[in-house]
Amino acid sequence: xxTRTLISGLDLKRPRTRAVYFGVLAVTAVAFAAVFIYPLYWxxxxxxxxxxxxxxxxxxxxxxxxxxSAYTDAWNHMRIPxxxxxxxxxxxxxxxxxxxxxxxxxxxxxxxxxxFGKLVFxxxxxxLMLPVAALLVPAYLTLTDLGLINSPWGLWLPAAANGFNIYxxxxxxxxxxxxxxxxxxxxxATRLKTLTKIVLPLSRPVLxxxxxxxxxxxxKDFLWPMLVMQDPEKQTLSVALQRLxxxxxxxxxxxxxxxxxxxxxxxxxxxxxxxxxxxxxSAGAVKG
Amino acid sequence: MATxxxxxxxxxxxxxxxxxxxxRRRLGxxxxxxxxxxxxxxxxxxxxxxxxxRSVTLSFQQDNLVTDPEWVGTANxxxxxxxxxxGTAIRNTVEFTGLALVFGFAVPIAIAILLNELRHFKTxxxxxxxxxxxxxxxxxxxxxxxxxxxxxxxxxxxxxxAHLPTSQWVQSPKTAMLSLVxxxxxxxxxxxxxxxxAALQSVxxxxxxxxxxxxxxxxxxxxxxxxxxxxxxxxxxxLLQITATMQVFIEPFQLTGFTNPDTITVMTxxxxxxxxxxxxxxxxxxxxxxxxxxxxxxxxxxLRITREETV
Lengths: 288, 311
Prior knowledge:
CATH architecture of the largest domain in chain A: Orthogonal Bundle
Distance between the termini of chain A: 26 Å
Number of strands of chain B: 2
Largest sheet of chain A: none
CATH topology of the largest domain in chain B: MetI-like fold
Shape of chain A: flat
Low-confidence stretches of chain A: none
Largest interface: A-B, 105 and 116 residues
Number of helices of chain B: 15
Strand content of chain B: under 5%
Largest sheet of chain B: 2 strands, antiparallel
Order of helices and strands of chain A: HHHHHHHHHHHHHHH
CATH superfamily of the largest domain in chain A: MetI-like
Mean pLDDT of chain A: 88
Oligomer: heterodimer
Order of helices and strands of chain B: HHEEHHHHHHHHHHHHH
């Protein structure tokens, strides 16, 4: 035991404490499975049930007569691939725009230090405190004035105004020693070259965390994409699912299959990048 | 910022170059820096700074995107205060925030303390509790809508199977708000639990040892050591959660609709005024401004607390 917690390692060696410990462990493990995994399992398997079995609503562990027809129907009728590609396009584009805008800004604030740089940084940080609710209506009207309704830029540009990204990037850049950049400048590297050849390669870990959270954020976003993408053809998967569920023309098994399909990319990202995601969270907590 | 000299400018100055050359150099450096900043400034200006100002001016205007905006003084605020839905929305939002704190604030702390004691399956617990956070929020809401269905939903099937009384869940005014809170807590608690868990790693082990030597039992160690050590992050999370839950939207929007007076919240009312029913952006802005003022108080408190702690 590296560090001790509430209960010491010594205590745990006593048979009674050990018994209680393993009891609690088992109960917690099962409770977690029931509360957090079972709903997702229910969702994935409900899409495999026949409409009749689904309507019967007996709590089953395995579908009696599993069939993927709800999934294929959802895929074809609800045009999942179309909305899926829309969402991928918005998420990847939003990620690239966020990254280029915010990296450049944080680099300028951290290493080029212009006049009023501190003021600009403070004004950007202050937006972290701004509730989305306060900006929703005026930002929407501004977007309308700019003619960006139904344009992906209507999703990307507001996403780039991300105070959290600026804060994290600037803090990271601040820790890169000036000497390295100076040496590069003496060797004749331009500011842009210093950024792309020296600062960015050094910043890989922080860029990874920001990238993952920005893609997850774009994928999960609902209200803003619903307002911006008014043309049903251009909607994200989340917004399209909600629209189709409200029209209630879709059989429930098909709807649930579509919900499962919308979830899969996020679960895949989570499984692949779990260490970055969970690590990014705890970094946020320690920073306070 | 007057002392700003970039590293590259320094050697030149020491070489005794003329002052005008140095000035030109600094001007160039600043232009370069602002070139890197430009895109960021535009994005923040258009979508954060200007909208903030505009929400205030808009709240004194009549604007429906069809006719030209018109100054109407405090008319929007008067209409707002006369609307019975306004009071309902405030009450509901406060109720939601309160209930969300009972579950969403206390439960993650308890779970984090428990998980910190478990020496097995660490990765399993951390992964599993965060899984719902990865779902698109609208999918969580729609999924729970199936669970809550009073006729054929999973929850009533389980209750029925256990010979317990079933519930109307979101369809009864008595349980609607609580049902929404459960969805939101389930979907979001992973993040806060993991943050508490990370904070627990930095509780000095000597404190537990000392408490034990003084004869403190398990509960006393929780109350006297663990919780006081978590005080700061608890306060931060409390304020963040209050601000987040006061802006709740997706759960009432999907599960009960933005017309249902049992669960209409400030955020769904803003949506209703601006986009769903009235197309009255001035009225929606007036409500946004009021919400903003309340949330700013929490934000100011948050800033004060975090600043005191880091000094």
